Amino acid sequence: MNLDKTVCYCMKITYRKVKEAVDSGATTLEEVQKKTGAGTVCKKCCENLERLVEDFAADHRA
């Protein structure tokens, strides 16, 4: 996975920033939104963002 890929263009949030938010304790889309601002402007990325949060959170549970 390319962690430098952008997931939220409005806020310029990369996969890496989402992973860092999850690594620091965020486990839901809403928590990642609060930490990063991703998915809070046009909301077009929310579906992809939520899937990404779930994937990173699953890595912590494995």
UniProtKB/TrEMBL annotation:
InterPro entries: BFD-like_2Fe2S-bd_dom, BFD-like_2Fe2S-bd_dom_sf. Residues 6-54 form the BFD-like [2Fe-2S]-binding domain. It comes from the Bacteria. Pfam families: Fer2_BFD. This is BFD-like [2Fe-2S]-binding domain-containing protein. It comes from Hungatella hathewayi WAL-18680.
